[in-house]
């Protein structure tokens, strides 16, 4: 185990410590996907992280999956993001944007044009979506045609270019948690029989194309990929991890980092290490109460391969998490009722240690 407070690098990113803030949707953007001043304050409060990964941000309008989540597909949004990245940098931090195309996880009432969500195949997800009119069942998405698939790649590229213009230190492409790229990877959501479906190699073709195109556009040293093998979230079924992930991992460009979310037990991190030897960061399964740091989580960092540990709820509830880890606690408990509630409460008002003592 290495020292969490030791410097490390992920591609072009230099991090003063090995604790990464996990991407967390907080639904504090405006209804039309504009970042707000409150968001700048929230992220700047957490600038002590070695790296902040932003909440999921839709790269195109049809990629939006939740209410009041921010986008990065217009110049205006990029300008607003500039206030967030400037605030983080002024506070001494680093931030990459998580580009998340939600695919079939969405609802037509989320979009002004009321269009339907898109996916590899026309299969509705089990479950319900939080919409302006309350909880609604997921709808049958439109299966992307060949032009639609190209548009997905273009959308990720344009958003990545805008991200760099907006001052982000890089981008993380979301390939997990049952969103669009995961829907292509998983056999139960991808019933295509073209170049983007049919066998594991072809199911990986779109995620591979996105990674190659984004790496080409902004440089591989500023690009990461998040995966969550076997995560059943959003109605995903993945049985053979090796078959599914081998083609993806073997064809990745030399990106800055692979981000593994250990969603299930036993954790697949060791097996993934056999297929990808580049820099890796891991969001481990934890046993600590929500909001508390789990000292066991540090043991995932092994020096050169697993370079940092990714922390979600504990960072949400403890803006000064690093000082608290150094001090051995105490920790604020996370208030789940304010995760997506909008407003300042449960967002920028978690007390720091200084305020507690
Ligand atoms: C409020 C909340 C929002 C989340 N939103 C996202 C998201 O936008 N993108 C993503 O990849 N994961 C998201 N996650 C999952 C976290 O990144 C992380 O994997 C999860 O919280 C487990 O880590 P932890 O035990 O340290 O909290 C979210 C989690 C929480 C608690």
Which term fits the overall shape? globular
Low-confidence parts: none
Q: Could you say which small molecules are bound to this protein?
A: flavin mononucleotide
Mean pLDDT: 95
Termini Cα gap: 31 Å
Strand/helix succession: EEEHEHEEEEEHEHHHEHEHEEHHH
Largest beta sheet: what is the strand line-up?
Answer: 3-4-5-10-11-12-13-14
Number of domains: 1
Question: What topology does this entry show?
Answer:
Layout: E1 8-10, E2 13-15, E3 19-21, H1 37-45, E4 51-57, H2 75-90, E5 95-99, E6 118-119, E7 128-131, E8 134-137, E9 142-143, H3 146-165, E10 170-174, H4 180-185, H5 200-203, H6 205-218, E11 223-227, H7 241-250, E12 257-261, H8 269-275, E13 280-283, E14 306-311, H9 313-317, H10 321-327, H11 353-356
Parallel strand pairs: 3-4, 3-14, 4-5, 5-10, 6-9, 10-11, 11-12, 12-13, 13-14
Antiparallel strand pairs: 1-2, 7-8
Helix pairs in contact: 1-2, 3-6
Describe the structure.
- The protein has a single domain, classed as TIM Barrel, CATH 3.20.20.70.
- The protein is globular.
- It is of the alpha/beta class.
- An eight-stranded parallel beta barrel has the order 3-4-5-10-11-12-13-14.
- The protein contains eleven helices and 14 strands.
- The longest helix has 20 residues.
- Helix 8 links the parallel strand 12 and strand 13.
- Helix 1 packs parallel to helix 2 and helix 3 runs parallel beside helix 6.
- The structure holds flavin mononucleotide.
- The site of flavin mononucleotide (FMN) has 19 residues, from strand 4 and helix 9.
- Flavin mononucleotide binds next to strand 4 and helix 9.
């Amino acid at each position: 185990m290495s020292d969490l407070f030791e410097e490390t690098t992920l591609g072009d990113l230099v991090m003063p410590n090995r604790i990464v803030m996990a991407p967390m949707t907080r639904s504090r953007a405006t209804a039309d996907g504009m970042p707000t001043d409150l968001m700048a304050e929230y992220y700047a409060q957490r600038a002590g992280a070695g790296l902040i990964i932003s909440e999921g941000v839709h790269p195109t309008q049809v990629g939006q999956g939740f209410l009041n989540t921010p986008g990065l597909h217009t110049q205006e949004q990029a300008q607003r993001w500039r206030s967030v990245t400037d605030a983080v940098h002024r506070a001494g931090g680093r931030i990459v944007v998580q580009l998340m195309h939600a695919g079939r996880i969405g609802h037509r009432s989320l979009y002004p044009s009321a269009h339907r969500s898109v996916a590899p195949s026309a299969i509705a997800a089990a479950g319900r979506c939080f919409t302006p009119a309350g909880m609604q069942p997921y709808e049958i998405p439109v299966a992307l045609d060949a032009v639609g698939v190209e548009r997905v790649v273009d959308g990720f590229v344009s958003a990545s270019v805008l991200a760099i213009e907006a001052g982000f230190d890089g981008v993380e492409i979301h390939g997990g948690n049952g969103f669009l790229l995961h829907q292509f990877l998983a056999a139960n959501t991808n019933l295509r029989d073209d170049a983007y479906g049919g066998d594991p190699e072809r199911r990986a073709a779109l995620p591979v194309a996105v990674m190659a195109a984004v790496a080409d556009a902004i440089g591989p040293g500023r690009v990461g990929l998040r995966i969550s093998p076997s995560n059943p979230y959003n109605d995903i079924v993945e049985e053979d991890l090796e078959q599914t992930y081998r083609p993806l991992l073997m064809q990745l460009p030399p990106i800055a980092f692979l981000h593994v979310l250990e969603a299930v037990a036993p954790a697949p991190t060791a097996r993934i290490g056999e297929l990808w030897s580049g820099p890796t960061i891991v969001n481990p399964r934890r046993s600590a109460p929500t909001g508390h740091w789990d000292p066991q989580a540090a043991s995932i960092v092994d020096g050169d391969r697993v370079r940092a540990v990714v922390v979600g709820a504990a960072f949400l509830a403890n803006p000064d998490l690093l000082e608290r880890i150094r001090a051995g606690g105490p920790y604020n408990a996370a208030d789940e009722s304010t995760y997506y509630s909008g407003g300042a409460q449960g967002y920028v008002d978690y007390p720091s240690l200084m305020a507690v003592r």
